[in-house]
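Support reply, case 0932

Customer input (verbatim):
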Amino acid sequence: MTAAHEIGPHEIAVPGPAADLGERIAALVPVLRTPRLTLRAPRLDDLPAWHAIMTTARAAHIDGPWNREESFEGFLAATALWLLRGHGLWTVEAAGGEAVGFVLIGFEPGDREPELGFLFTAAGEGKGLAQEAAAAARDWALGPMRLPALVSYIAPGNGRSRRLAARLGARPDGEIDGCEVWRHAPRQETPA
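Our regenerated output:
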C-alpha cells in the first residue's frame, strides 16, 4: 500500500516500445482547443492533478474522497473509455502547460445516457475554465461525434456543478439514483 504522497511504479512511464504504442494510441484522441485551454489525451504525468481532486474533499460529490489506488483505477477507467466507446476523459491544460482539470464524456454503470462530467483542481477554479472546457467537450460530443443525447448527473448539494450546467444551457430533466439529471441541448448555429 502506498502512502497518499508516494508515487508507485505503476504511475511512472517506462520508455520503450510499450510507451511508443501508448503515444500512438493517445494521438488518436481528438485535441480540442479553446481560447485559453487545450483538451488532450490523459497521460501518466497528469496523475498528480487527478489525485489532487479524487483523494481530497474535492471528490465529495462523486463518492470520494478515494484512496490513491481507487483514484488510479478511476483514472484508468475514464481513460479506457476512448478504446471502448470512442469518447472519454480529456486533460484540461492551461496555456502554461499545467493540468488544471478534466472533462469527460463518460458512460458508466448506472448511466442511462452519455454524461458530460467536469472535475477541476483548486488552481483551475474561479476563472471560467470549467465552463470553457465543458462547452468544448459538449459541442464535440453533440456535433462531430453526433451523440444522440448528453446529460450531466449532479449529486444533491453540488451547487457549483448545478450552476455550471445552467451556464452551459443545460436544463433539469428528472432524477436517477438520487442525482439530478441535467440535459444538454445541441448548440444552435446562428444563421449567417
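We compared this against your earlier run and they match. Two observations from our side: The mean pLDDT is 90. The two ends are 59 Å apart (CA to CA). Please reopen the case if you see a mismatch on your end.
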